[in-house]
Design brief:
- The chain is α+β, with helices and mostly antiparallel strands.
- The chain has two domains: 76 residues; 232 residues, BirA Bifunctional Protein, domain 2.
- The chain is built from eleven helices and nine strands.
- The strands form two sheets. The protein has a seven-stranded mixed beta sheet, with helices on both faces. A two-stranded antiparallel ribbon has the order 2-3.
- A hairpin with a 2-residue loop joins strand 6 and strand 7.
- Helix 5 crosses helix 8.
- The longest helix has 21 residues.
- The radius of gyration is 37 Å and the shape is elongated.
- The mean pLDDT is 92.
- Bound molecules: 3,4-dihydroxyphenylalanine (DAH).
- The site of 3,4-dihydroxyphenylalanine has 11 residues, from strand 8 and strand 9.
């Protein structure tokens, strides 16, 4: 195509655009001239065949043609379904920036702190690296108890270990304060367990402790745990106690919640029993008071401890403890 022919073609195309009087005609012309296989892109592609000395002038003319046709088409509303064209397409969906979700374990810990907070409990803290006295001796654990074995506990020398329970925070709290004491102690705990669907070498517990100079009874413990069960798991959930043994409580109990799925009728979740085991608890053993310098004749109290993973798994129906540590957003975001 010579320059003169190009000018003719351009004049023709502009005339056609000017004559187009509906959106379909405008679109057809857009495709014909500036569409991917339109005549202007074809000319640009064929540029290499234009003699070298004519190329700059020819190129300029093609670009001018393109600009004028596009302007004419735009004036007729091309590409915007007949509406006035705007710079941004306001009909596109917005960008999703991926809001984070709170981890189920954090949810359970925070919810527990809120529930016990209403009953006057505050949150106490202790280190994950503990000594033998706080983790075992002061909790009245006999010297050769199997939980102290190297095969059960991560030891660093004779007197230093990764705490196997949050109960040592009871000892620290009592040694640093005078009764009345009302605390819960959430935190990480460690045991030499092989990981499977229900075990992890690193898990979380929440300890609870109430000590007072006025008499504290097992009935107080039961009412507080019953309130916790209802608030955490929903109406219709209550507690039952089963006799058990812990070195640091006497009497000791294991605590079951009514199965929150079947409300006690029996289902697959509670293995038809209507109950789910969730915690250990009991009245603080007088020997523990002795270890922290309290007069066991003058104070009494209760303690309890439960696994955070266990509560999260039953509350949210999580079948495998490992899901809680994989940080897979597809899992975590389901609670957002
Ligand atoms: N420390 C116990 C455990 O890890 C749980 C426990 C039971 C804590 C009874 C308590 C308690 O405070 O009174 O299995």
């Amino acid at each position: 195509m010579t320059l003169a022919e190009l000018e003719n073609a351009k004049a023709e195309s502009l005339k056609e655009v000017a004559a187009a009087n509906d959106a379909a005609a405008v679109e057809a012309l857009r495709v014909k001239y500036v569409g991917r296989n339109g005549s202007i892109p074809a000319l640009i592609k064929a540029m290499k065949d234009v003699p070298k000395d004519e190329r700059p002038a020819f190129g300029k003319a093609v670009q001018a043609w393109r600009a004028e046709v596009e302007a004419a088409l735009a004036a007729k509303g091309a590409g915007s379904s007949g509406e006035k064209s705007v710079d941004a397409d306001l009909t596109l969906p917005g960008r999703w920036w991926g809001l984070g979700a709170k981890h189920p374990l954090s949810r359970v810990i925070e919810e527990t702190a809120r529930i016990f907070g209403r009953l006057g409990f505050t949150v106490a803290d202790g280190p994950e690296l503990e000594n033998r006295f706080n983790n075992f001796t002061a909790l009245n654990t006999p010297p050769h108890h199997p939980s102290m074995d190297r095969s059960d506990t991560f030891w660093f020398g004779e007197d230093c270990l990764l705490r196997t329970q949050t109960s040592p925070v009871q000892i620290r709290t009592m040694m640093a304060n005078k009764p009345p004491i009302r605390v819960i102690c959430p935190g990480r705990t460690y045991r030499r367990d092989t990981t499977d669907a229900t075990h992890s070498a690193n898990f979380h517990q929440i300890e609870g402790l109430y000590v007072d100079t006025k008499p504290v009874s097992l009935a107080d413990l039961k009412s507080v745990l019953a309130y916790f069960a209802k608030e955490m798991m929903g109406d219709g959930v209550t507690v039952r106690f089963r006799p058990h043994f812990f070195p640091f409580t006497e009497p000791s109990v294991e605590v079951d919640f009514t199965c929150h799925v079947c409300k006690g009728k029996g289902c697959n979740v509670c293995k038809q029993s209507g109950w789910i085991e969730v915690a250990g608890a009991g009245m603080v053993d007088p020997r523990v008071f002795g270890h922290v310098g309290y007069d066991a004749e003058k104070v009494s109290g209760y303690a309890f401890g439960f696994g955070v993973e266990r509560i999260a798994m039953i509350k949210y129906g999580i079948p495998d403890i490992r899901w809680l540590y994989e940080n897979d957003v597809r899992f975590l975001s389901q609670l957002a």
